[in-house]
Amino acid sequence: MPLSDLTLAELEEYVPALETPDDLHEFWKRTLAAQARYPIEVHSELIPTHLMTLEHYDISYSGYGGAPIKAWLTRPAGVERDLPLVVEFQGYNGGRGLPVERLTWASAGYAHLFVDTRGQGGTWGGGGHTPDPQGSDPAAPGFMTRGILDRDNYYYRRVFVDAVRAVQAGRQLPGVRAESVTVAGGSQGGGIALAVAALVPDLTAVLADVPFLSHFRRAVDITTEDPYREITRYLSTHRDRTEQVFRTLSYFDVANLVTAANAPALFSVALMDTVCPPSTVYAAFRQYAGPAEIVVYPYNDHEGGQAHHWTRQLSWLADRMPPGEFPTPPRP
Q1: Residues forming the active site
Q2: Exposed (0-12), middle (13-18) or buried (19+): which is 314, by Cβ within 10 Å?
Q3: Domain 8-320: assigned CATH number
Q4: What is the pTM of this model?
Q5: Where are the domains of the chain?
Q6: SS3 293
């Protein structure tokens, strides 16, 4: 697949003009303050998976509006000391799946909380387990336009609050080193991780792999792929709502939000990505207020670096948040 966006040389100079609301951070401060009245209410249950080296817990906590959000917690088996925590968010319309699907972070010596995205998990993977009880005005199929005419009702307001509270819930779990928390994710999960980085001030690190939800205006203008195309289809019908739609989206654009982020971040971008165009990834990278690095995969589409990138993430994170040590097995 040929390049469909800017060249790497152009991307390295790319500083986009963004539509940033004057009350962006006040909106999110007010949103999180209103949600603080709902207790986190974390529930944890050890479940059997027949894996000798790892243990799994079925987690539930209270997200936006007190609605229950599901997650899996995976830890190295037999490790009693508190471990640093990686909170990971899922890609678009994937769910938390089965507990045996995500093993790498725990195998590397971290506690790993893998979080459902409300209402999602019906298209690929092992499925989701978290409904979204809030309704919506007329919307295009998918999640991108649910409540899009009103920032208070927009779908990703609930999702971002759920994600912030996932960090709060994770810090309450036994066996977790509460002061050592990294947020991570790819695509939608990467965008959510960047939003959390802006809304939670004391994270250890951020891993954003080919992130979604950035520079909406450009993404909608240049990509022919879903999920951004959901917005295009909506606007093709609601022709008189364009500015209202982009006004709402500006409160959820991570390229706007990350001006408040401070934790060290590792981004990745794929130059042939038609789902999350590289210029939209660079928009968030350029605006990121904390120390940030980016890994470029010149000949990849939205799959990005996959396992190659995870090994880079592991090495990068180990320098900033070292994993726990596994117990020494007894000698025969």
Answers
A1: 187, 273, 302
A2: middle
A3: 3.40.50.1820
A4: 0.97
A5: 8-320
A6: strand
